Amino acid sequence: MTNTTAAIVFHNYPQSPVAEKVRVAFGIKTLSWHDVEIPRLPPKPMLTALTGGYRRTPVMQIGADIYCDSQCIIHELERRYPTPSYMPTSDAGLMWCLSRYTDGEMFTLTVKLILGSAGDTLPEDFAQDRGRLYLGEDWADGLKRANEQLPHLVSQLRAPLSWINAQLSDGRAFLLGSAPAAIDAQIYYAVWFIRGRWSGGPSMLSEFPDLMRWEENVRALGHGTSKPMSADAAIALAKSSIPTSAIGVAENEPQGLETGMLVSISPDLDGGEHPVSGKVRYADANTISIERSSDEVGQVCVHFPRAGYHVTVA
After folding, report:
1. Which residues of 122-137 are buried (b: 16+ CB within 10 A; e: fewer)?
2. Which stretches does DSSP call E strand in the chain?
3. How do the pLDDT tens digits run along the chain, 314 residues long?
4. What is the rounded distance in angstroms from the CA atom of residue 21 to the CA atom of residue 74?
5. How many other C-beta atoms lie within 10 A of the C-beta of residue 251?
6. Which of 116, 216, 255, 272 could form a disulfide with 147 if both were Cys (CB 3.0 to 4.6 A apart)?
7. What is the CB-side half-sphere exposure of residue 128 using CA atoms within 13 A?
8. Are 69 and 305 in contact (CB under 8 A)?
9. Which pLDDT score, from 0 to 100, does residue 2 have?
């Protein structure tokens, strides 16, 4: 990429499973990107300066447009780089519906299994942060229950893994056929997390030979081409750019949103997170984009999915 303002800047850290999902998505399209490594735990001042408070990993930046949540990131990558497609079959709508399960219940089970199996060996600050994020206000009791219910959690994950194995049993390279798709990345990241972060993961996965064959195929896609970028450089890039994304509100808007309206946005669950406030720039069934500004980053546009996020009119 020669145009720095159009370059992909990816705010992530190596151990993040959700970042791994997007890194695989980069690999599917063989994209080049700039790698900004962020802290695993808050505070994340350079990241939240760009997002207005959103602290989850990962975040993608293109100039002064900031994309939060992997759902939003993958949508935007497909729009900007349509070939090869993340949706190589005619089942795009069905695959997006399936991704709500893989990013929801399936990933929550994976997190509970990994955090619960760690027990008292989990660092206290990490346990408190991730427990609150994924298990709610009563996170300590949630972690205790997860530890007590490990066999049950394994059984709940074993079922979808067996379904995936069956899908691949005809010898296909990827879930939808010969070409990799977004759904491969959206399932692979949970498998990657299970294998790498739970001591029982390799043994559990060995039950599913076709899934393991597929896992190798996805791993071989790589992560595209990356080069490091400092957080300061990413901030400077945002400040020297202006948002270039669409402006407007689609018809049939259920919350009565209008451009310029002040709103706040947060994940649609009780993770104890800071909402992001700004003025509506764009909204449709899939996305909401808000403008905000500060002396540190200038004017930016922060993009969120509609599915899984709560929008409150100020």
Report:
1. beeeebebbbbbbbee
2. 9-12, 32-37, 59-62, 65-68, 225-228, 248-249, 262-267, 276-283, 287-294, 298-305, 309-313
3. 335 679 999 999 999 999 999 999 999 999 999 999 999 999 999 999 999 999 999 999 999 999 999 999 999 999 999 999 999 999 999 999 999 999 999 999 999 999 999 988 889 999 899 999 988 889 889 999 999 999 999 999 999 999 999 999 999 999 999 999 999 999 999 999 999 999 999 999 999 999 999 999 999 999 999 999 999 999 999 999 999 999 999 999 999 999 999 999 999 988 889 999 999 999 999 999 999 999 999 999 999 999 999 999 98
4. 10
5. 5
6. 116
7. 5
8. yes
9. 37
Two structure tokens written together for 65: 């447009």
Check residue 14 and report its DSSP letter. T
Strand-strand pairing, 59-62 and 65-68: antiparallel
The CA-based angle 307-87-103, given to 5 degrees, is 35
Name the amino acid, one letter, at 275: P
Write out the H or E segment, with its range, that includes residue 193.
helix 182-197
Give Rg (Cα) of the chain: 19
Q: For residues 191 and 199, what is the distance between their CA atoms, to the nearest angstrom? A: 13
Rounded Cα gap, residues 217 and 111, in angstroms: 24
* Amino acid letter for position 137: E
Burial, 64: exposed, middle or buried (Cβ in 10 Å; 0-12, 13-18, 19+)? buried
As a whole number of angstroms, the distance between CA 223 and CA 219 comes to: 9
Place of tokens 């400040």: 239
Task: Give start and end residues of each alpha helix (H) in 67-181.
Answer: 70-80, 92-101, 107-118, 124-135, 139-148, 150-167
Residue-level pLDDT at 1: 35
Helices (H), 52-123: 70-80, 92-101, 107-118
Of 154, 134, 145, give the one whose Cα is nearest residue 199. 154
Given this model, what pLDDT does residue 14 score?
98
